[in-house]
Amino acid sequence: MFIGVMKKGDKVISVTSELIAIQRKTGEVDIIPLLKDETGRRVDTEGIVTIGYGTNTVQATVDDVIVTTF
Questions:
Q1: Nearest to residue 45, comparing CAs of 57, 30, 58, 29?
Q2: 44 lies in a domain?
Q3: Which 8-state DSSP code applies to residue 3?
Q4: Fewest CB within 10 angstroms: 16, 54, 64, 69, which?
Q5: What are the DSSP calls for 11-50, one per residue?
Q6: Is 24 within the bounds of a domain?
Q7: Which string of b and e fits 32-57 if b means at least 16 CB within 10 Å?
Q8: With contact defined as beta carbons under 8 Å apart, do 31 and 51 qualify?
Q9: Residue 3 lies in a domain
Q10: For the chain, how many structural domains are there in total?
Q11: What number is the average pLDDT over the span 22-30?
Q12: Domain-embedded: residue 65
């Protein structure tokens, strides 16, 4: 199995059977969920969460609308 989720300069922080945590070269961290199905494991592209720099806000996009909470 090969999981190609890194770019040059990225670092793996953690790997479990359920997720991979990648620190991007910008310092942000992507939490990448893994799904298991009949073909094996795959990346849940809709469930990726990025932890980045900000002012204690959470943003999510729903149907082309950005929802922000404080």
A1: 30
A2: yes
A3: -
A4: 64
A5: EEEEE-SSEEEEE-TTS-EEEEEEEEETTEEEE-GGG-EE
A6: yes
A7: bebeeeeeeeebeeeeeeeeeeeeee
A8: yes
A9: no
A10: 1
A11: 97
A12: yes
